[in-house]
Amino acid sequence: MTPLRFLFKANKKFYLDLKAVTGYYPRNINLYKTAFIHRSATQKDQSGHRINNERLEFLGDAILGAVIGKFLYSRYTDKDEGFLTKMRSKIVNREFTNDIALKLNLDRFIVSNMTKNPATQIYGDAFEAFVGAVYLDLGYNKAEKFIISKIIEPLVNLDELIYTESNHKSRIIEWGQKHKKPVCFKTEDNNEGLLTGFKSSVVIDETVYGEGYGDSKKNAEQVAAGEALRKIEDEGL
What we know:
Blueprint: H1 4-22, H2 29-35, E1 43-44, E2 50-51, H3 54-75, H4 81-91, H5 94-103, H6 122-138, H7 140-155, H8 158-162, H9 168-178, E3 183-190, E4 197-204, E5 207-214, H10 217-234
Antiparallel strand pairs: 1-2, 3-4, 4-5
Helix pairs in contact: 2-6, 3-4, 3-6, 3-7, 5-6, 6-7, 9-10
């Protein structure tokens, strides 16, 4: 059994880490602990019920979309619905949430039985669950302030994002056509551990240039294409 003093120290550190991330002292620390439990961890409560972050992820996704939607609506008063929708989709997507989770160092808190790598959706899922926990613990207003002041304003270059093409699959296909190289997507059901969904690989000249996971074929292929584009850029191809 772990001595109580060590449990206290661990909780205190987690408590202070959460304050550093959000800017607010948490009230219900257990919400945040749940936010970082991936379903592959197969943890259970005292009643035998499974504990994971999926419900909080569902809630956080809705809160994130609402906050960013309102932010864009207020910032771009002269833009139409199509522009606002496209901008929001560039921000609220799996690649973005994965990246934000890593920039906030949330990956250090994640509990899972899977191999962690940026091509999986574990990080993004945990980030959305974290947003859900902030909302339940501190309320909508503080969740909104956290998203805007700690994420959107310091971590997202909106002016650059306007001109960024977020359809990675189209870009990698266009690159292949331009350089006369066949680009092949191999997408299949993923049964790795308890992570259900799809796994996609981008193959160029019989070499895998990128892999991605997603809850749909489209999302998995977009993540894989993004990874492939980064590798192509790094290699100067």
